[in-house]
Amino acid sequence: MDFDPLTADFPQRLEFDEEQEAQAQGKSEPCSPLVLWAMGEQTQLSDGCMKVAQLVIGCSRDWLALLRLAPCKLEIAGSIIVVDHSLAGVCLQPHLKDSTCLSVRVNGQSSLLLLCQYAVPDEQAVLWAEAVYSAIRPEQTLIFASQPSRNYSIDNSEDPSCYMLNTDQARSAASHADRACDIPLLPAGQLLTGLPAALLSLCQVRQLKATLLVSDQAGGQHTRLRQLQSSLAILLKALPGSWNWLNLGEDIVRKAAKDLEAASPSTRASLYA
């Protein structure tokens, strides 16, 4: 196509285009999350790190609803703050509606529970994982997550399912303890993305013992929670060490279902949102 500079119209630049270019040029690399500790916890730091025997990370609403009701004494130890993330409306007491990530000490012992209640973008998941494991050095990690069933190519339409993935160190520890787990491994070639993948990959690279329990999001709410409770009970029996504080009863499942329902926007409110 010929372009005659004497007769043809020159392309015009709009103010909107210039603003977009200015924003693109001004964009910087995402900042690493801030790991903050309560005053009482800072005395437990060694070389700037918190050394714990057990680290449990919850990354989905279903798991969070269950974990926050664990039958043990939970004390807030700190929080993980994402830069530019608003904390407006956060309650003093942990709530499912809060967009926060609290670190909670279990029974005053060497166990930490991370309740990640905000969404971590995929492009920032590695930064988030690195910030956590730079501040916390666990002997063993459990990661609980959920992903849409479309991420799996297997047919699980009848019942919601849980799948497990281990780092090499965790697999070796389980084999030495002669403990088998009946939870199926995530089939080869299945897609695992986002924060769960970043956490498990980092643990693998750093040769840490870590186990990921990932569930699909198919089925009704109460059915999903009961499946998670059942899978967790199976997993705990196969893990070395004492995990009694994670034994969740049927009463906790019912309470978690009510909490999820209360935290979800009502149908009437969503119609006028």
From TrEMBL:
What's the domain of life for this entry?
Eukaryota
Q: Which InterPro entries match?
A: Proteasome_assmbl_chp_1
Any one GO CC term of this protein is:
endoplasmic reticulum
The UniProt entry's GO biological process terms, in alphabetical order, are: proteasome assembly
Against Pfam families, the record matches this protein to: PAC1
What's the protein name? Proteasome assembly chaperone 1
